[in-house]
Structures are given as C-alpha cells and as structure tokens.
Amino acid sequence: MTSEPSTVDTPLKKLVGEKTAKALAAHLDLHTAGDLIYHFPRRYDERGEHTDIRSLDVGEQVTVLAQVQRTAVRPMRQRRGNLLEVTVGDGSGGVLTLTFFGNQAWRERELRPGRWGLFAGKVTEFRGKRQLNGPEYVLLGEGGDGETAANEEVEEFAGALIPVYPAAAAVPTWVIARCVRVVLDTFTPPDDPLPATVRATRNLVGIGPALREIHRPSSKEGLYRARRRLKWDEAFAVQLTLVQRKHRAAAWPARARPAKPGGLLDAFDARLPYELTPGQRAVGAEIAADLATAHPMHRLLQGEVGSGKTVVALRAMLQVVDAGGQAALLAPTEVLAAQHHRGMLDLLGPLARAGELGAADGATRVELVTGSLGAAARRRALAEVAEGRAGIVLGTHALLYEGVDFHDLGLVVVDEQHRFGVEQRDALRAKAEQPPHVLVMTATPIPRTVAMTVYGDLEVSSLTQLPQGRSPIASHVVPAAEKPAFLDRAWRRLREEVAAGHQAYVVCPRIGDGPASEEETPREDDNGRRPPLAVTEVAPLLAEGPLHGLRIGVLHGRLPADEKDAVMRSFAAGDLDVLVATTVVEVGVNVPNATVMIVLDADRFGVSQLHQLRGRVGRGSAPGLCLLVSEAVEGSPARERLDAVASTTDGFKLAELDLEQRREGDVLGATQSGRRSHLRLLSLLRDSDLIRDARAEAIALVEEDRELERHPALAASVAALVDEERAEYLEKG
Q: Hey, how many other C-beta atoms are within 10 angstroms of the C-beta on 533?
C-alpha cells in the first residue's frame, strides 16, 4: 500500500491492499480511488436515534444501528451445541433477533445489554419474528475481541453522524468506511469542473471539500452543503446532455408532413361517432404543427388510462398518410397490436379499404405485421408495406426484423414506451431514409421532474380529461391472510356482476410451469414465501370452486397467437364471463362490458402496473370495481403501497409514489442498459427545484458554448457521469 498522493485514477489495490481491492471489485464494481470516493453513503445514523426496524422488508440486505436489549442461550434441537439469540432494538419500539449457531460464549460476553452496534445481514422471518441469521457486526464505543471490529475501524463511527454505505454481504459498511478513510488520507481531488460563475451564482461549495465532507461530515450543515453540490453535478450533467441533444436534433432534416384539407383526416373526423375532448383537440393541434415542420417531431404524449391517446395518434398517422407518407405503430404485445388493428379498422371503415369494393375515395390500407403471421399472409403484408399501399402499419417487435421495408416511413408511434428497449426503437427509426417524426405514448403519468430529466429533449403533451361516458372505478384491498371471509365475499361479488350481465378479469402474476415470460412478475424469494399464483393453476381451481358454472377463459403470453386472438375475441363478444390472465391485459385491452377485476397476489405488482390493470374496467357506462387481494400484513411496506393504490385513481399521485419506491437510477435507464446507475444522490422527486435551476443554467451555457469547447473539464465531467450509452438512452427515451 502506498502513502503517495492518490488521484481518481489510482487503482485501489495500491491503497487498500490486494485482498480488499479484489473484494471491492468483485462485489461492488469499485476499482479506483475515484470509484470509491464516489460510492457515497446511503444514509447517516446517529447513536440514540432509531433506524425504524419495523419498516424492514423480509429478504432485504440491511445494516441497522441498534442497541442490545437481552441475550439468551438455548440448546439446538436438531444438532449438538447451543443457539445464541440476541434481541436488539432501535428506540422506535421495533426489535430484531440476531441468531448465532454453535458454542460461542465469547460472543455472549461481547454482546452485552446496553452496547450499541451496526448489524448487517439479510432479514428473514421465523414464527412471525424478524431476524438476522449470523449477522456481521461492529460494536461502537469500547473495543472488543472476536468478530468485533478493530479500534481503528470503530473510530470511523465515533462522530455524531455514522455513514452507512451501500454494501455487500462480503464487504460490510464498516470495511468500506475503513477503505474510504485510507483513500481520503492521500487523496488529491480533481480540479473543479464547474464554472466559477455557476458556483458563485448558485452558492455551491468546491468539489474537494464536498467529497471529504460527504464521507466524514463535520456537521449536519456541512453534510447538507456537500450533498447539495454533488447532487448539482448529477443534475447539471444530465441537463447539459439533454439540452445539447435537443439542439442537435433540431438541426436534423425531416420531410414536412402538413395537413391536407379534404383528405383522409377530414373524412375520419367527419365519421367519428363522438366528439373529441378539448384536450384531444389541443394536443392534436400541437402534433399537427410539429408534423408540418422540416425537423423531426420528438413528442411524448401522456394520458391516463382511457383518455383517448389512440385516437390522437391515429389522427396524426392520417395526416402523414395524407402527405404521401406511411405511419407505423409499435405495440408491446401481439394481443394489443391485434386489438389496435381491429379498433382502427372499425373506426376508419371504408377509409381503410383501398383496393376493395366499397372503399372511400383516397382510402389507404391498415396492415398488421406480427411474428405469428403465416408465410403467405406475411408475404402479402410485407408487399403492401414495401410498395406503400399500406399507409398505416401496426405490429410488435416483428416490425424491426430484416425484411420489413417501408416505402416512405414518415411517423413512428411507440405505444407504452417503457416496454421497449432503446435499440428496438432505434431500429424502427432507422428504416426511414430521413429521421421520421416520433410520437411516444404512455398511460403511466410522469411526474414533472421525471419528464424534465428523462424526457428533457422531448416536447411533452398531456391528456387530462376522460372522454364522456367513462365510469368511476372503486378499488379495495382484500387482506386474504387476516380475513379469509373477505376473499369469499370477493368471489361472490364477481358472481353478482356476471349475474347482472357483466364480465370480469382475474389477474395472476405468473403463467405457470415452464420458462418465465416477459409479462410475468414473479418476486419469488427464499424466505419461506410461497411462489406467486399462476394462471394455469388458478383457473381450474376457480372453475371447480367459487366460480363453478361460469364461462372461464385463459389468456397469457405463452399461448399461440391465433389462440390468444380467439380468446380475446370471445371475451370481447361476451361469450366468456371471466378471463383469467397475466399482465398481457395490462395495456390497451378494451372490453366496455367488463366491470370487475380481481388481482391475486397484488403486492407482487408495481404501483404503475396496478394502475394500468385497473384501467381495464369501468370502460363502459357501468361503474368499475378493482379488488387487490394480498397476504401482506397491515403496516408492511407492501400493504401500504396497495392501500395507496386503492385510495386514489390520480395517476400522477401514484406515479410519484412509484418513483419514491424505486431506485432513482432506474428512471435513467440503468435497468435497460444493464449498467450501474449514475444517479447516486439526486432524487427526481425531492430535488425538483435543484433540477429546474440546473436546467436553466444548462440552457444558458449551451446557448453560448454549444459543445462546451471553452469548458473542457466540465465536458469531461459530464462524459464521466453520463457516458455515451446513457446519453443515447436519454436522447431516444
């Protein structure tokens, strides 16, 4: 190990030794001094303040600051030796049991009542009690023997604020803290990349003091200032990238697709059986103006489930067809692509029957291209697309394959954008000679700061009104474990709706035996919880039990495409009473007669998924009912999440809740790129003012120095925080 000055590029093995450096690299992907210095504490504990043991989730890897309350030794039943049980508490009333196997009298002496320590391990549950089996720990204050950390490590926790790092079982937080101390003793911070004028205007501390203070805070005020500066760096890097990309995109050429009076769009508007909402008209005008320019549109259209986004998109597609181009809509599932196809054919009528008897003047064709098309049908569809006779093309990933060629692709509409990877969207855009116009749609409302941070290079339009005739949806949690009678009542309620002439969905998180598919949400764990309920297992049990005598259909992603389509058609026609399905019904499925949905194992779905699923009912004149069945106990995080979903149908409130409960970095595409998130401190929810200020400074700086040529250190810092892959994700988002 060296005592020479170290920089961000110094390998950790020179500073902390080969063995520790290997563990940091293998378990936490930390290789250099810079990697470690930017591995910020997850939180800071204070001795005497609780860390809320009651909120811990089973299966979570945790580090808790707690005080030993009592110890007990008892013989083990299955094998020789004793079991040491140590009860620790955090001052909030929450307690945790630590279990140690084998004869370890020294540990009993060490873990005396009254001692404070940090205890790290995986939360399990045994007979209703939360516990950590054989946890790693470090005791605070006095030194100890055995597994207790050496005094030099304990020093790390002698201050008022104790840093707790994102850790791994093999590298607990106190080992990381020791390594950070070693690195900080020799660390030379980089030159500050932030322009001095921005630092002064925004009252930000320098990078060197910020990096020291975040690891070894001298006070709460010093820590606040350090975190604010480092959050600013993250927000500024993302906003600079987005503003630069927006400028570059504005310079790309695209073919203008202006509206044509007396064309298909006017004919479509004239035959619509209902009036557009004011919101649909306003958003339609924004999109029409974008399409008429010689630069590619990049617009995000967000709207609640059932707000009428599809009609807005279809009107945009018709404007492009009127201007001589083609439009493609990419849907996440074959079920949804087929439903879009049927729905558009119904809405367009003779306008979609070019070449057939009874076709309207100037009609086009609407083609469906999916992976399950037969050879002859595929050849015919591809010829229609390649020769330009099909003005509107609908499909799944199959549209991205080699051999699907467009005559003149003018508009790409991506439905439910979060279900597609960056590369897939880009492959479709590459099928045009010039960049096509792009309309991205989502029914998952996006909080303002997420829109600003993730979609900062897209214009955002929102549909907030529901069309006339949509009914309210009531939602309730059914606590199956605590009150089994409530579940019986749920099935009776479903039968009542069917008896009244309506239909129902039953949704499960898993298909059943066989390999997992994309639509499944199995959160299986090794903590004694049973596997999630499966469609193929639940459907026969319902048919023999509480739903005996009802006409039950099964729908999931592993069925052949023609079978899926047949089931969906039967349900839509009213030939089935109940559809037992996976999340394949999550988006776009429209059966106005379906009034009730029962979601089994609802705690295994995300907030946005539940909101989307719920939107499948109440689509007609009768009110909708959504019952969220769960074994999650009252007061647990999973139950609180379900209670929140049941308490509101406001998608924007739920989107904020969803964001709170996910790692912030997921929003920036870490899950799509498979790389570690670069948002370490910034909270898109809590730091909205800082993000807004960073965007304003980014716009001003890029206006005067487009490529940051006069700020090379800043350009390098942005490149390190938002690498090229992440930048492309942001651009294509």
A: 18
